[in-house]
Amino acid sequence: MDYASYLIDKFKNKTARMAVLGMGYVGLPFSTVFASAGFDVTGIDPIQSKMEKLNRGESYIIDVTPDLVKKLVSDGKLRGTSDYSVLKDIDAVAICVPTPLRNTGDPDLSFIISAAEGIAPYVHPGMVVVLESSTYPGTTRELVLPTLTEKSGLKVGEEIFVAFSPERVDPGRKDWTTKNTPKVIGGMTENCTRVSAAWYSQALDTVVPVSSTEVAEMAKLLENTFRMINIGFVNELTLMCDRLGVDVWEVIDAASTKPFGFMRFDPGPGLGGHCIPIDPLYLSWKMRSLNYTAKFIDLASEINTNMPRYVVGKVQDALNEHEKAIKGSKVLVLGAAYKPDIDDLRESPAIDVIRLLEQKGAVISYFDPYIPVIKEDGWEIKCIPDVMTGVREADCVVIVTNHKCFDYDRILKESCLIVDTRNAYGKMGIKDPKVVRL
Ligand code: SAJ
Fewer Cβ in 10 A, N or C end of the chain? Predict the structure, then answer.
């Protein structure tokens, strides 16, 4: 039987039944886009409470509206489960599981492995599996494919079709979404690319086929390593300008007037998120296994990781100018999420800034309307109830994440010293002697 044509026909007439493994910030938006396009979608996630929320028509991801989830669930187009056996009736599976780092800094591939192992007992002729999780070049070929075909004996490119397509979700972004962001996709064989591209093209505006899973895996790492290295460079520029006594923000504003050949990045308190600080380390790890040192990645990672310490140094100097020691001073950290206007704390540099300040004896507190509590390795700190009380009582306010919802005018008026790591006031055209910038 020509399973490739069989599947392509099912995608074109939307009778294919699909599943999404891993229903987080990638999987849930992905599911709703395909269900809205007319597909029957089953979300699979080991966290039952999330699946129960989904089945009640609730959204737990900031980028997906509850109304959309409610409509798709009530129309019977979308449902959630923690039971992998539903896969026996599924034609197409997208794997959208996390790819974090272990404490050692090495890739944690356990989620990809358990996803592939969860699918393996249910693979059948006429099935396509696409890995979406950011990972090192070779993962699909070396880890996912063998797990799916070893026991089943299915022939890749003839009976089962396997591809890689990097997710490009930018949490909180409204202009570029899962539906309209161009989607790169590369298969194990030409047929795998053709079948998986046919599937994705039914729901996504632009699908970009490439010749292999490695090209698709590496394209994603180029995208995110490009950002990580350039952020690392502009952070190093900040250290250089500090020693030169030059205002780095003015330098960047001036360079940004160049209409070509330059792309602006801003210094900050460090690199947070689920992708930018992590994906490049998957590449450097893979290259070490091939006896190659990815120098740019290692250097940028070192600089970015050190930025929280640099911020604490700035706070120490600023308090010193006010004849106050950091020890015993009340310091309020404003904003804990890893970037503005979202509720995601992953890899947030705010955690390092808070813990370093605490270690230096500061009486530390934080306020972030999106983050009620911060917990890490048994350590915990709760968000203070009222931001302006915190501001008034603080010897120093540190803006780590410049959420739009903050009342910057009042904070400026009622504080005595501000360390602004995001140039929030500079971007509003406000210069004030009590505001210290990176
Ligand atoms: N950051 C800086 N300076 C900058 C830009 C960012 O310090 O000039 C910091 C941010 O504060 C944040 C971290 O870097 O802590 C990551 O920022 P980000 O804007 O890359 O945010 P992410 O990781 O949520 O989103 C990224 C996507 N971002 C953009 O394209 C703007 C993109 O790299 C990927 O689509 C996505 O993650 C992903 O999934 O890879």
Answer: N
For residue 276, the CA-to-ligand 1 centroid distance in Å is 6
> Which residue's CA is the closest to the ligand 1 atom numbered 30?
170
The architecture (CATH level 2) of 214-305 comes to Orthogonal Bundle (1.10)
**Domains of the chain, residue spans:** 3-211, 214-305, 307-438
The values of phi and psi at residue 366, to 5°, are: -140, 160
- Banded pLDDT at 171 (limits 50, 70, 90): confident
Whole-number Å distance, alpha carbon 30 to ligand 1 midpoint, is: 20
Atom of ligand 1 nearest to the CA of 181: 35
Per residue, what are the HEC states of 218-277?
HHHHHHHHHHHHHHHHHHHHHHHHHHHCCCHHHHHHHHCCCCCCCCCCCCCCCCCCCCCC
- Checking if the pLDDT of 172 tops 90, the result is no
Quick check: is 275 catalytic? yes
Q: Could you give the 3-state DSSP secondary structure of residue 186?
A: strand
pLDDT in tens, 333-369: 999 999 999 999 999 999 999 999 999 999 999 999 9
pLDDT, tens digit, 9 for 90 and up, residues 220-247: 999 999 999 999 999 999 999 999 999 9
Q: Are strands 160-164 and 127-131 parallel, antiparallel or unpaired?
A: parallel
Tokens standing for 369?
Answer: 């309307």
pLDDT above 90 for 205: yes
Same topology between domain 3-211 and domain 214-305: no
* pTM metric for this prediction: 0.93
Q: Quick one: fold of 307-438?
A: Rossmann fold (3.40.50)
Element containing residue 193 per DSSP (H, E): helix 190-201
- The closest of 86, 87, 78 to 51, measured between CA atoms, is 78
Ligand 1 pocket (Cβ < 6 Å) reads: 167-171, 224, 227, 231, 265-266, 268, 271-273, 275-276, 338-339
Contact present, 187 and 207 (Cβ < 8 Å)? no
pLDDT tens by residue, 87-103 = 999 999 999 999 999 98
Second CATH level (architecture) for the domain 3-211: 3-Layer(aba) Sandwich (3.40)
Judged against a pLDDT cut of 90, whether residue 197 lies above it is answered with yes
Q: Looking at ligand 1, which atom is closest to the CA of residue 235? A: 7
Assess contact for 3 and 126: CB atoms under 8 A: yes
